[in-house]
Design the sequence.
């Protein structure tokens, strides 16, 4: 199958939505995203359901468990399965979190990488290995974090920029993660956004989050997107200056497809408005 790249506004592909999606995919959903770990190697009805959609719509693979910054060797067997899965379903884009999540076993948490020069070189070398195995450049996602590793030699934005340059990879921008971190650590989210290598942006996430009683924000993907996060997305479109495929993440407390489609439609409207302003400037 020919590899297809995403465009426009998309939605996370969830089994809970399959019945509604089979009845009709809303016209404003241009693509879907899935975690290849949850689908590669599936047989039976799950495989048939997935094939039904990948034959008709572009998909993105967004990894959950590669542990790009971790100490353990990369799971090359998983990468070979992902490469075969992407080829089988015509998927042209793979992204992963700029974090680590495993040592001798999976920790089931996305942990921050120390902001050091050694960590830049270590992580970038692993990303290059991933790209060699998959045969394509990948996007790395700025992660939400809840602690700061000691010994920082640079800012997080500078670290991300250095990894992207060293690995010659792409940026997967998550605007909700920026907002969550800015609230929890007390920095300007727009300044952070503008310090990133936005010219390398290949893909964007937008999502909701949960506010704890003490004010801590948790990146749950379990609520509607709030206005300050939409404002960051708008600023990203303005700064990038071109159309970037953008996916709405919703992983639990999943509403009906109509409600999700309305949020995807808002992404599409922001993209259209940004494109209109860019044409006026041109």
Sequence:
């Amino acid at each position: 199958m020919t590899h297809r790249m995403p465009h426009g506004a998309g939605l996370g592909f969830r089994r809970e939505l399959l019945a509604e999606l089979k009845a009709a995919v809303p016209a404003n959903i241009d693509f879907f995203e899935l975690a290849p770990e949850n689908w590669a190697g599936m047989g039976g009805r799950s495989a048939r359901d997935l094939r039904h959609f990948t034959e008709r719509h572009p998909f993105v693979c967004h990894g959950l468990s590669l542990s790009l910054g971790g100490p353990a060797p990369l799971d090359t067997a998983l990468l070979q399965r992902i490469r075969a899965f992407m080829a089988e379903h015509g998927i042209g884009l793979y992204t992963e979190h700029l974090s680590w999540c495993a040592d001798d076993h999976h920790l089931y948490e996305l942990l921050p990488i120390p902001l050091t020069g050694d960590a830049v070189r270590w992580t970038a070398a692993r990303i290059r290995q991933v790209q060699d195995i998959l045969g394509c450049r990948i996007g790395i996602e700025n992660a939400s974090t809840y602690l700061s590793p000691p010994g920082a030699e640079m800012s997080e934005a500078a670290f991300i920029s250095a990894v992207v340059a060293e690995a010659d990879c792409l940026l997967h921008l998550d605007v909700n993660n920026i907002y969550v971190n800015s609230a929890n650590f007390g920095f300007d989210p727009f300044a952070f956004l503008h310090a990133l290598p936005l010219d390398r942006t290949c893909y964007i996430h937008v999502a909701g989050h949960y506010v704890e009683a003490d004010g801590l924000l948790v990146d749950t993907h379990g609520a509607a997107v709030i206005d300050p996060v939409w404002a960051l997305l708008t600023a990203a479109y303005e700064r990038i200056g071109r159309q970037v495929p953008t996916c709405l993440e919703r992983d639990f407390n999943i509403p009906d497809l109509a409600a999700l489609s309305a949020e995807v439609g808002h992404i599409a409207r922001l993209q259209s408005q940004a494109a209109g302003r860019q044409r006026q400037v041109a």
